[in-house]
Design brief:
Elements (H helix, E strand, L loop, with lengths): L3 E2 L1 E3 L2 E3 L4 E6 L2 E10 L3 H19 L3 H17 L1 H12 L3 H22 L5 E4 L5 E9 L3 E4 L7 H12 L4 E4 L5 H13 L7 E3 L4 H9 L6 E5 L2 H13 L3 E5 L4 E5 L5 H13 L9 E7 H17 L18 H16 L3 E4 L3 E2 L7 E2 L2 E4 L6 H4 L6 E7 L2 H9 L6 E5 L3 H10 L4 E4 L19 E2 L9 H4 E9 L1
Parallel strand pairs: 1-5, 8-9, 8-11, 9-10, 11-12, 13-14, 13-20, 14-19, 18-19, 20-21
Antiparallel strand pairs: 2-3, 4-5, 6-7, 7-23, 12-22, 15-18, 16-17
Helix pairs in contact: 1-7, 2-4, 3-4, 3-6, 4-5, 9-10
The chain binds 2-aminohexanedioic acid (UN1).
2-aminohexanedioic acid binds next to loops.
Length: 479
């Protein structure tokens, strides 16, 4: 096969025998490229190389790691148009979103470049006279990184950049649907000077590549973003090896809209949070919890805004909502529309497959009203452009409904009341709370993660990333 993009194993690009085609969801005739699939032997070789590199990498020095991260950041920023285009072409988010995500990845690498220069410990007096205590952070060891398809550049960046910062070798398995961006990032890091074995790319199915990684005791920590079902497998396999693990899973994020909300702000938050990036964000607002006094105005305004949304080819500059990522996900989205209808919800807008000039996975964003919080469309993560309005009496009921879920990633409220906003921040059962902002779209320099069934383990991003990527050492000295 011509021009297969290889895996990177122990500092060598290796094409292997099998490759998978990368298809554009906006135009299924467009084959972006072929990407080598790793075998279990390849994964084993990658882990062996990473383990062998761990000792020297831990002693590489902060200037070396700073420079690699900084070089990567600069190249990603300089190439934001072409990487952003590749992202939109393989994942389906709009070009503006693709370029925005690429810029965010560059910022993440830049942030962690700075963090390498700020690594610090603590020196404390002991409770015993004449003894000093030092607390330092050491690398955790080989980090296995398993990423989803919905943020093909930013999520790899926020897992890989801290691994490099804190001197951990990486074995990286990206989602099969988006091998192109993963390859681009690894290529950039490789050329930026990562020593052989410190960054390995093993592309391929979770059942083979992911499983081989989970089964290997030399992988000392696994960071995963994806579904709850897979997260559970990661957890079980990791407990068996007593390794550290960090899971970011789904959401069923509520956006509460109170009577006193600024209507334009609330509608913008809802439409942006629920439908942009085609609703394919674990932070998407899928439950719009709206009080009686504003309910009909809010619904009317949302419906007219949804009808105006331009759904089309991700690379067309007029497009606001790109296609769903693939046929399987589109079918799941359409199935949930049907489930909602059967449960007795009213479909007020969208919900149908759309034909466009090119053959792709297009869907009109769907809004349900007259829904109850216990309907399946309000308890299960759809991961598509499908949202429901849940009508409630007052703030107290809104808060109860917002929290009445097994998930707890992001929780939003639109209100002009300081009292309600403050109460909500204190009482929302979520890792992230948004006031007069969409539930999705987070900063790159502060912690990211959820409560309840949405997340497990230490937070990602910002300075909090050190918790996962390091082991704390406490040293006592008697002088
Ligand atoms: C964001 O909303 O800006 O998979 C990021 C996801 C999340 C990232 C969301 N881990 O959707």
């Amino acid at each position: 096969m011509a021009d297969v993009k290889p895996n990177l194993i122990g500092g060598q690009w290796q094409a292997g025998e099998h490759a998978s085609a990368n298809i554009n969801p906006s135009d299924t005739d467009d084959v972006i490229g072929h990407y080598a699939t790793a075998t279990t032997d390849d994964v084993e070789a990658a882990i062996a190389a990473a383990s062998a590199a761990a000792h020297d990498w831990a002693r590489s020095g902060i200037q070396v790691r700073h420079d690699i991260l900084r070089t990567a950041s600069d190249e990603i920023m300089a190439r934001r148009e072409d990487i952003g285009r590749l992202l939109s072409r393989e994942e389906g988010k709009t070009l503006a979103e693709g370029i925005g995500e690429t810029v965010r990845a560059a910022q993440i690498f830049n942030f962690f470049a700075g963090e390498t220069l700020r690594l610090a410990g603590e020196k404390l007096p002991s409770v015993r006279a004449g003894v000093d205590v030092e607390i330092t952070r050491e690398p955790v060891g080989v980090v296995g990184i398993i990423t989803p398809w919905n943020f093909p550049v930013a999520i790899p960046a926020w897992k890989i950049a801290p691994a490099i910062c804190y001197a951990n070798p990486v074995v990286f398995k990206p989602a099969e649907l988006v091998p192109g961006c993963a390859w681009a990032i690894v290529d950039i890091l490789h050329r930026a000077g990562m020593p052989a074995g410190t960054i390995n790319l093993v592309n391929g199915p979770g059942s083979v590549v992911g499983q081989a990684m989970l089964d290997d005791a030399r992988v000392k920590a696994v960071t995963f973003t994806g579904s709850q079902a897979t997260g559970e497998r990661v957890a079980q396999a990791s407990v068996r090896h007593m390794r550290k693990f960090q899971l970011e899973m789904g959401g069923k994020n509520p956006l509460v809209v109170l009577d006193d909300a600024d209507l334009d702000v609330a509608v913008d938050c809802a439409v942006q949070g629920a439908f942009f990036s085609t609703g394919q964000r674990c932070t998407a607002s899928s439950r719009l919890v709206v009080t009686e006094g504003i309910h009909s105005r809010f619904v009317e305004a949302c419906v007219s805004k949804i009808r105006e949304l331009n759904v089309g080819d991700a690379l067309d500059s007029r497009t606001q909502i790109g296609p769903v990522v693939d046929e399987v996900q589109l079918q799941q989205d359409l199935d949930y529309v049907e489930i909602g209808r059967r449960e007795g919800a009213t479909l007020r807008a969208g919900g149908e497959r759309l034909a466009r000039e090119k053959n792709g996975y297009y869907m009109q964003p769907a809004l349900f009203t007259d829904t109850h919080n216990d309907m399946r469309i309000n308890t299960e993560e759809v991961f598509g452009p499908v949202a429901s309005v849940i009508r409630v009496r007052d703030y107290e009921e809104a808060l109860h409904v917002a929290n009445d879920t097994t998930f707890g990633l992001s929780s939003g409220i639109c209100t002009q009341s300081l009292k309600h906003a403050t109460h909500f921040k204190r009482n929302a059962q979520a890792g992230m709370v948004m006031v007069n902002l969409p539930t999705a779209g987070v900063d790159y320099h502060v912690p990211f993660g959820g409560a309840k069934g949405s997340s497990y383990g230490p937070r990602e991003q910002g300075r909090y990333a050190a918790e996962f990527h390091t082991t704390v050492k406490t040293a006592y000295t008697s002088a």
